[in-house]
């Protein structure tokens, strides 16, 4: 048994965390460029502090990142050496439409990604493309208030039409919005939302979410029209909630917290607002403005597969005495006393991956794709840039074993697995380079110093052997 013969092993990155070249060849500015490293990052990504441009006081790691803009051939060759079957990456919207609302795209931006996809194809690597990985052109934020405006749906549609036509035959797998539920937790980074004094924050977030959900359905429709071979997925920041105790109140609270996140995928996969969400929105006095035809679009153009990121499970309690928190992927959780944690406090729970996979598969009955999983850690390279990252191998081994159980023992249909940050890149949460995920070390530090030289870590050869054995050899 084991994984399917055509299992898509690979790695994942996002444009803003690796490309750099923020102002090259006509690229416009985006929200992801202006989020600095340091203590202001969190207030900015959550939309509480305004940052619409650069200033002299901050360092902006995305400006250059690891300069994949100029290194992509070298990087893809290394991915190919590991045996990647797929490479998950994102396009930067503002490279293709610098302002976001133009009619005609920027040819230089289109050409750049065409070159990247062709480079992948040269090695039989299937590109898996995230259309929006947290980025929104700055002009759309300043002029339209980003996704709070319905006009964004049309601009996104235009982007999709252009890329689906241009990359027909080169790209088949698409994800519409990275971690769409992040709009609730990091609204500026996730959807370009900045809140003015007096804004009804929840109302704005859910209206913006409706626009994204609609845009996602329209993208799915066009993708299928342009090329019936196209496969479109949604993308969830996943990780199930566990109740802290068997107290039914904890169980109920955990279920509700899961639903806050499932809500988006319920719409994208099942095609309608779920009953529990309609009731909750009503209770909160949130009114979603819909136009004629919206419901039909959502219903008729559901996704082909469910993709998600998984780093950790989460814990929920209703007891005010239970308040020992630990960091997690943007939103913090209570500490689970049964689990160890990474250096950044993210708790490590391989069985939680199997639990999450089963919960998603039971709920949607569509193929799953794990498009992010990995360990952010401090690496100490020797003089040749070699890192003995046994801790990373250990983390990945256990997670691959758990996903194998979900496939073999539970019958979950899994299309592929792309580890997060297959090459070291800028952290989305903290802006650090020090928090490394890669099989490939990149010589660059938090302040932007370093030669950008790439070198293989110990995990490079380990992953190569995992792929070569289609997940049979994890030693
Ligand atoms: C996910 C994002 O939230 O987690 C990635 O899709 C991000 O962009 C990854 O990098 C890991 O988070 P962090 O904060 O360690 O970079």
UniProtKB/TrEMBL annotation:
<dbReference type="GO" id="GO:0016052">
    <property type="term" value="P:carbohydrate catabolic process"/>
</dbReference>
<comment type="similarity">
    <text>Belongs to the glycosyl hydrolase 1 family.</text>
</comment>
<keyword id="KW-0326">Glycosidase</keyword>
<dbReference type="Pfam" id="PF00232">
    <property type="entry name" value="Glyco_hydro_1"/>
</dbReference>
<dbReference type="InterPro" id="IPR033132">
    <property type="entry name" value="GH_1_N_CS"/>
</dbReference>
<keyword id="KW-0378">Hydrolase</keyword>
<dbReference type="GO" id="GO:0008422">
    <property type="term" value="F:beta-glucosidase activity"/>
</dbReference>
<dbReference type="InterPro" id="IPR001360">
    <property type="entry name" value="Glyco_hydro_1"/>
</dbReference>
<protein>
    <submittedName>
        <fullName>6-phospho-beta-glucosidase</fullName>
    </submittedName>
</protein>
<dbReference type="GO" id="GO:0005829">
    <property type="term" value="C:cytosol"/>
</dbReference>
<feature type="active site" description="Nucleophile">
    <location>
        <position position="372"/>
    </location>
</feature>
<dbReference type="InterPro" id="IPR017853">
    <property type="entry name" value="GH"/>
</dbReference>
<dbReference type="InterPro" id="IPR018120">
    <property type="entry name" value="Glyco_hydro_1_AS"/>
</dbReference>
């Amino acid at each position: 048994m084991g994984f399917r013969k055509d299992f898509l092993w690979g790695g994942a990155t996002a444009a803003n965390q690796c490309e750099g070249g923020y102002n090259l060849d006509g690229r416009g500015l985006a929200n992801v460029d202006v989020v600095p490293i340091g203590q202001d990052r969190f207030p900015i990504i959550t939309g509480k502090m305004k940052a619409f441009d650069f200033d002299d006081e901050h360092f902006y790691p995305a400006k250059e990142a690891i300069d994949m803009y100029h290194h992509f051939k070298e990087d893809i060759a290394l991915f190919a050496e590991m045996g990647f079957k797929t490479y998950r990456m994102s396009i930067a919207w503002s490279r293709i439409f610098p302002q976001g609302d133009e009619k005609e795209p920027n040819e230089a931006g289109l050409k750049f990604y065409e070159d990247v996809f062709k480079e992948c194809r040269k090695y039989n690597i299937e590109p898996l493309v995230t259309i929006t990985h947290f980025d929104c052109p700055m002009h759309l934020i300043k002029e339209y208030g980003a996704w709070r405006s319905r006009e964004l749906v049309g601009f996104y549609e235009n982007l999709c039409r252009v890329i689906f036509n241009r990359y027909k035959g080169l790209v088949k797998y698409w994800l519409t919005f990275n971690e769409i539920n992040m709009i609730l937790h990091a609204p500026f980074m996730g959807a370009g939302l900045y809140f003015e004094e007096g804004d009804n924050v929840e109302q704005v977030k859910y209206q913006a979410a409706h626009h994204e959900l609609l845009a996602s359905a329209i993208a799915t429709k066009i993708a299928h029209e342009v090329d019936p071979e196209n496969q479109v997925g949604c993308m969830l920041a996943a990780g199930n909630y566990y109740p802290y105790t068997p107290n039914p109140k904890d169980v109920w609270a955990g279920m509700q917290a899961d639903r806050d996140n499932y809500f988006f995928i319920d719409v994208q996969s099942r095609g309608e607002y779920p009953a529990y969400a309609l009731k909750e929105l009503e209770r909160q006095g949130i009114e979603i403005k819909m136009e004629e035809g919206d419901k039909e679009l959502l219903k008729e153009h559901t996704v082909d597969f469910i993709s998600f990121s998984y780093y950790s499970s989460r814990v929920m309690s209703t007891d005010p005495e239970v308040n020992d928190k630990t960091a997690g992927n943007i939103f913090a959780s209570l500490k689970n006393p049964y689990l160890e944690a990474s250096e950044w406090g993210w708790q490590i729970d391989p069985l939680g991956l199997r639990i999450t996979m089963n919960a998603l598969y039971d709920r949607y009955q569509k193929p799953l794709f794990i498009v992010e999983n990995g360990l952010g850690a401090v690496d100490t390279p020797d003089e040749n840039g070699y890192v003995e990252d046994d801790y990373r191998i250990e983390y990945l081994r256990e997670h691959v074993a758990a996903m194998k159980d979900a496939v073999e023992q539970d019958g979950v249909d899994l299309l592929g697995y792309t580890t997060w940050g297959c090459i070291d890149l800028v952290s989305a949460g903290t802006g650090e380079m020090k928090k490394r995920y890669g099989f490939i070390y990149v010589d660059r530090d938090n302040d932007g110093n370093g030669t950008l030289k790439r070198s293989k870590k110990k995990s490079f050869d380990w992953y190569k052997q995992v792929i070569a054995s289609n997940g049979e050899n994890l030693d």
